Amino acid sequence: MQNLRNRNAPPVAGLVQTYLDTAYDVVKEVYDNLALIQTVATALDDLDLADFLAQADINTLNKLNTIVVDATLGNAADFATAAQGALADTALQGTFASQAEAEDGAENTKPVTSLRVAQAIASQVASAKLNNWSAVTNPGVGDDGIDGYTVGSMWVNVTLDTAWIASDVSLGAAVWLQIGRTDAAILALVAPSIVNVQTGTSYTILAADNGKEIIFTNAGAIAVTLPDTLDTLFQCVIKQAGVGVPTVTPDTDTINGAGTGVTPSDQWKGLHLVQYANTTWFATF
What we know:
Elements: H1 14-32, H2 34-45, H3 55-73, H4 82-90, H5 99-104, H6 114-127, E1 132-135, E2 154-157, E3 162-168, E4 175-179, H7 183-194, E5 195-198, E6 202-204, E7 213-216, E8 222-226, E9 235-240, E10 246-250, E11 254-255, E12 270-277, E13 280-284
């Protein structure tokens, strides 16, 4: 190797000269050992792992290499998608509890979905009716399912000594039926549906009067029209509560075989009307 130092060059001061001397020494050392470096490189190319590793270690390396290759070159269908992987991060694993197992409440090894939890709660609520045994007021439309009441729930008003049972617990529209009523209470409920009180001096009998008692209270004469539009087997009772006499006159039908009007026999008395055949009426006094 040619000497790179210029012996005739003027001296270079201090640190710079030191760097130049070191570089020269390194380059010369490499040049002098090129043959050795080439020999080592050739030996590394021919290196056999069996000369340095046990067979078990080589087998492990081969397995790792196979895993890396499969992960890199494998079919995409063999792997979860990103979305599937995200689901797998939070998914419950294993066999899920059935509805029957959730409602029974004894299974303690299977995961339970939110639906099964809701079904279990609903089952427990349904099997344990809410009752109110010490109320001081009667139940209302707001005492409904959201409060825990179900059809068949009982309610006792200890102040009025009345009892109630729920027949409908719809939200804001609960229906409670009183049980153990007095005759007066029953009559108060039934009377509006079977009694039709008339205070005027004229009235036309309606289809809605079928099965009712029509009570007339006016002091003057009362004209009652019996229309032809009423169905066969229609019946009602005409009662005279005032001093005015109600006279029932058919449009074109007949009453007791005639087309003339009929009246109760006296105040506080009445007559029963029934259409037993088309256009034909019976009046029983």
